[in-house]
Design goal:
Layout lengths: L1 H16 L13 E4 L1 H4 L5 E6 L5 E5 L2 E5 L4 E5 L7 E6 L5 E5 L3 E6 L5 E5 L14 E7 L2 E6 L2 E6 L2 E6 L4 E7 L2 E6 L3 E6 L2 E4 L11 E7 L2 E6 L4 E5 L2 E5 L4 H7 L1 E6 L5 E5 L4 E4 L5 E5 L10 E6 L5 E5 L2 E5 L5 E4 L11 E5 L2 E6 L2 E6 H6 L8 E2 L7 E7 L2 E6 L2 E6 L2 E6 L4 E7 L2 E9 L2 E8 L2 E8 L8 E4 L5 E5 L3 E7 L6 E7 L12 E5 L2 E6 L2 E5 L6 E3 L1 H7 L5 E6 L4 E6 L2 E7 L5 E4 L16 E4 L5 E5 L2 E5 L13 E8 L5 E5 L17 E4 L6 E7 L9 E7 L13 E4 L5 E10 L9 E7 L7 H100 L7 H19 L3 H13 L3 H8 L5 H11 L4 H8 L3 H15 L7 H7 L1
Parallel strand pairs: 59-64
Antiparallel strand pairs: 1-28, 2-3, 3-4, 4-5, 6-7, 7-8, 8-9, 10-11, 11-12, 12-13, 14-15, 15-16, 16-17, 18-19, 19-20, 20-21, 22-23, 23-24, 24-25, 26-27, 27-28, 29-56, 30-31, 31-32, 32-33, 34-35, 35-36, 36-37, 38-39, 39-40, 40-41, 42-43, 43-44, 44-45, 46-47, 47-48, 48-49, 50-51, 51-52, 52-53, ...
Helix pairs in contact: 6-7, 6-8, 10-12, 10-13, 11-12
């Protein structure tokens, strides 16, 4: 009884731990594939686990590979560099590793590196020869490593070895029990560190069991080639399923237990198969359904309830916890969906290439092998809408209006494009069709829709239409505004048109839509939901939708369903307004965050059914929503700093989990991430990520460098940040993430310190202080010396000033003396001028006297000697001698010579000393030339004729030895 209770408790804990991992039956879950090109390692992956922080690790052929949601990296390898085949992790995040011919454990160091330690050295040499360690399990404080040759039990740093007699086949952990299948003994159980046979365990021989699960009916056995079996009451019985043919043909390679009795079965050739506890097929996800490789090696449910699948060629993340799934088939050819409709158990979708259908009931039941979308013949272009009108299914296409019957379409009207159709209120036999260039009318005659005519008076594009209770037709034109039409009685023309745009209260005339909710006409605008005020006819915000959706977002769609909910697309968010008993609404948006940015712009469409199915037409195909799928969106997760490196020197890593990029540093695993950097390394590059793997590309980050920035940055998709020229300080880099569900992660921090440059260290400041003191001392000394020099200079300047004053006085005295000398010189010049005038006057008088005497001599010479020759001859002779004496007298000449020498710087003496051969007559002639007299003026002074003056000049020229071309007067004047 106690054993039974323990088993029940174990099952409860097991199922409670995987409650959120139930996979949807309708549609195919979203799958994220990671190829070897993406993670840049070997294609083969054998195991997967997640640590307490949420980090994912994979057993890769190249070693242990890590994925943080953004970056992949091989973080460590076994010492023999062999492939990693199995892993297990304890509560302290120590990873135990089984490799090829090696096993050990891995711990993370404070610098981010992972350090591998081999345990093979604890084995005796005789037990060191073994192959792949296929399973690694932690239980009851011990670690079990399984290979085909031996079972290794590691505890308290010792290893117990259990050898296979021939060879083991496989290893199983079922609850707290450990089983081993032996190729000779069958099924064995590990008990007290020994393998003991299970009763009737020999029946397992040859079954090639690959997985065992505990169920209410006994042990469920997954065999490699023979399907599933139940082992109960020591009997093995086949467990029949709907996929036995697939399991037997494609070989089971792995298995996992999901919630609600679901089992995931990995195959070698057909991907993932999910069945329920009764063996019914729930999902078959293979390469055609989106799985990148069909050889499944292992599984792991992560903290978010999603399924990681390791493959022989890559890794896939199957988002089984999401209530959204894709409606795809084996062809998977149509993606862009404009509309959808379920009619007569068939699902129709409108695409760019026409209308398609599939058997919806068969698809829902999981029988999808032969269930594919079939093309409706006769339609090959854009199908904008499809709807049920009466008992007919009509499609509205680029080329007109079509009625769908079976696998073909019949054209009801070939018009220039049809958008959609609506029934005219109170006239169920009249169908109004909105076209590219106006409105058209169809009438139901004898159970069939028949085209009638084009309605006159309105030629605008009519893609979005609604009718009100008064029979008015409301048409939204995305670029103009809203039209309200009223037809005449025969519905062949428009008798009244009213137009509304921003002038009538709308926030803008662009991107307006019209919807009908609770028989009320509403309008979607760029600023919330509007309605018409009945009294003023103005467009005003609707108070109910203002309360729940606000007035900030563009309302693209409002769609009521059969459960009294209102579906909407507001901005980029899709949501559901669920009506409560008190009349209020509950808003639900988180399950639909995946739909952001994948709608066909302007053609957003949501289709609901009475059964609660909801379809979203997107650019990535048709997406199904199941309201009964309960997912936890507020799951906590962590942000982390993946790598820190200094930019200078280039790529100098400080913290990283990448393999062999940092030297190992000893220290406690719990040491705070921190480092002290020189000032030359003040430019850092941070890489960060978040351990939220669902739609990781949509995760946004904010960061803050405490000590440098005042606050957090804005959220962005950036996963790296660089800082340069950081001043010396202690810093803390913070980063946190916000996933697509607006859940903010726990923040990650990195502490570091930038040391000051050498010129701002303590010793530098001490040196600066000493140098400053010396400089101050030198400055004081210099100032004193300068003051002394200035004092001496002042004395010198005063002395110089005194000397200058004395010089000025002397100069003034000299100036006065010069002025006196000038006066004396002036007086002397006046005297000289007077003497010159006197000399000139004497000379003139002398010339005049000599002229008189010459005249007298001439007269005496003319006396007639015959009158009294004897008497008068004697007298006349005496007169003549007297005159000659006067003419040749020297008295006047001496006076002249004395004055002349004074005036002309002793000219006569200098001339005589230079030319001693000159006669007194020659000297006189030279004096007269010095006075610039001409020949006629000189002749009387010398008492000779003009001819005689010329002869004398000639003789003087020779005595002076003057060349013939030299003017004698100029020579005398310049002598």
């Amino acid at each position: 009884m106690m054993k039974f209770k323990t088993r029940i408790l174990l099952l409860f804990l097991l199922f409670s731990s995987i409650t959120n991992s139930q996979i949807k039956k309708i549609g195919v879950p979203f799958i994220a594939n990671y190829s070897p090109k993406a993670y840049k390692a070997a294609s083969e992956n054998w195991d997967v686990l997640q640590d307490s922080k949420g980090m994912m690790f994979f057993a890769n052929h190249f070693g242990i590979m890590q994925f943080d949601g953004v970056r992949w990296a091989i973080v460590t390898q076994p010492e023999n560099r062999s492939m990693v085949r199995s892993m297990a992790i304890d509560r302290k995040d120590k990873i135990y590793v089984g490799a090829q011919g090696d096993f050990g454990f891995v711990i993370q160091l404070p610098n981010g590196q992972y350090q591998y330690t081999s345990l093979v050295k604890l084995l005796p040499k005789t037990a060191r020869n073994f192959g792949d360690v296929l399973h690694t399990v932690i239980r009851n404080g011990e670690v079990i490593f399984f290979s085909y040759e031996r079972l290794f039990i590691y505890k308290n740093n010792t290893i117990k070895v259990i050898n296979a007699k021939k060879a083991f086949d496989d290893f199983f952990e079922v609850g707290k029990e450990i089983y081993v299948s032996d190729n000779e003994k069958g099924l064995l159980k590990l008990k007290n560190d020994a393998l003991v046979p299970v009763e009737n365990g020999q029946k397992f021989l040859g079954l090639q069991v690959r997985k065992i699960f505990q169920t209410k009916n006994g042990l469920l056995l997954f065999t490699q080639k023979n399907g599933l079996f139940i082992f109960d009451e020591n009997q093995i019985k086949p467990f029949a399923t709907e996929v036995d043919h697939l399991l037997k043909q494609n070989q089971i390679s792995a298995g996992i237990q999901l919630s609600d009795g679901y089992f995931g079965i990995g195959t070698r050739q057909s991907g993932l198969i999910v069945i329920d506890g009764e063996g019914h097929l729930i999902q078959h996800i293979d390469k055609q359904m989106g799985l990148q490789n069909e050889y499944v090696t292992n599984f792991k449910i992560d903290k978010e309830g999603n399924l990681w699948v390791t493959l022989k060629g890559g890794i896939s993340l199957i988002q089984i916890s999401s209530p959204l799934s894709k409606i795809i088939d084996s062809t998977n050819s149509e993606t862009k969906i404009y509309c959808s409709q379920i009619y007569q158990n068939k699902l129709y979708i409108g695409t760019d290439n026409g209308l398609y259908w599939l058997d919806w009931e068969a698809y829902k039941s999981g029988k999808r092998e032969n269930v594919t979308f079939q093309h409706i013949s006769g339609m090959s272009e854009n199908v904008w809408n499809v709807g049920v009108f009466g008992n007919s299914l009509l499609a509205f296409e680029k080329n007109g209006i079509f009625e769908i019957s079976g696998n073909s379409a019949k054209a009801l009207a070939k018009i220039d494009g049809a958008w959609q159709g609506i029934l005219i209120p109170n006239h169920s036999d009249l169908l109004l069709v909105g076209g590219y260039t106006g409105l058209y009318l169809l009438k139901k005659i004898n159970g069939s829709w028949v085209f009638q005519h084009r309605i006159k008076g309105f030629d605008e594009s009519s893609r979005i239409m609604e009718t009100d209770q008064q029979g008015n037709i409301w048409i939204a034109h995305g670029y103009k505004g809203i039209y309200k039409l009223k037809f005449n009685a025969t519905f062949d023309s428009v008798k009244d048109i009213q137009f509304y745009n921003d002038k009538n209260g709308f926030p803008s005339s662009l991107f307006l839509n019209t919807f009908k909710v609770d028989n009320q006409i509403l309008f979607g605008t760029t600023k919330g939901v509007y309605r018409q005020d009945l009294s003023s006819k103005k467009m005003i915000p609707d108070p109910v939708f203002k309360k729940y959706l606000g007035l900030e977002n563009h309302i693209r769609l409002l769609k009521p369903d059969h459960q009294d909910n209102i579906w909407y697309i507001s901005g980029e968010n899709t949501g559901k307004m669920s009506r409560q008993k008190n009349g209020s609404f509950k808003i639900e948006e988180l399950p639909f965050r995946k739909l952001r940015y994948i709608y066909v712009p302007g053609f957003e469409n949501i289709q609901t059914t009475k059964g609660g199915d909801v379809f979203f037409g997107t650019q990535e195909g048709l997406i199904h929503y199941s309201a009964i799928k309960n997912k936890k969106y507020q799951t906590k997760y962590k942000a982390l700093i993946s790598e820190v490196k200094c930019i200078f020197p280039k790529d100098s890593l400080l913290f990283s989990s990448r393999y062999d990029v940092l030297p190992n540093k000893t220290g406690s695993e719990n040491d705070k991430l921190s480092t002290v950097l020189p000032y030359s390394s003040n430019a850092l590059h941070f890489s960060f990520a978040s351990l939220c793997f669902e739609d990781a590309d949509a995760t946004k980050y904010e960061y803050w460098l405490e000590g440098f920035e005042p606050t957090w940055s804005d959220y962005s998709l950036q996963t790296e940040k660089e800082y340069t020229n950081l001043p010396e300080n202690e810093y803390v880099f913070h980063v946190r993430a916000k996933n697509m569900y607006d859940v903010v992660s726990e923040e990650a921090v990195f502490h570091f310190e930038i040391l000051p440059p050498w010129y701002r260290t303590f010793w530098a400041y001490l040196f600066y202080f000493t140098l400053y003191s010396i400089v101050i001392y030198l400055i004081v000394r210099y100032q004193k010396s300068v003051a002394e020099r200035q004092r001496r200079q002042l004395i010198e300047n005063q002395e110089k000033e005194l000397l200058r004053s004395r010089a000025e006085l002397n100069e003034q005295k000299l100036t006065l003396e010069q002025q006196n000398m000038a006066i004396i010189r002036e007086n002397l010049e006046t005297t000289i001028n007077l003497k010159n005038a006197k000399v000139a006057s004497n000379t003139v008088n002398l010339i005049h006297l000599n002229e008189i005497l010459l005249s007298i001599k001439d007269l005496i010479g003319q006396i007639d000697k015959k009158n009294d020759p004897n008497v008068n001859f004697s007298l006349l002779t005496k007169i003549n001698k007297l005159i000659d004496h006067e003419l040749q007298g020297d008295k006047h000449w001496n006076e002249f010579e004395e004055i002349f020498n004074q005036l002309h710087d002793n000219f006569m003496q200098r001339l005589k000393s230079t030319y001693p051969e000159l006669t007194p007559r020659d000297m006189r002639l030279c004096a007269y030339l010095r006075m610039n007299f001409n020949t006629k003026e000189i002749a009387p002074l010398l008492g000779i004729s003009v001819r005689g003056v010329e002869d004398t000049r000639y003789r003087i020229r020779k005595k002076l030895q003057l060349p013939s071309d030299t003017n004698i007067t100029e020579f005398i004047l310049n002598f």
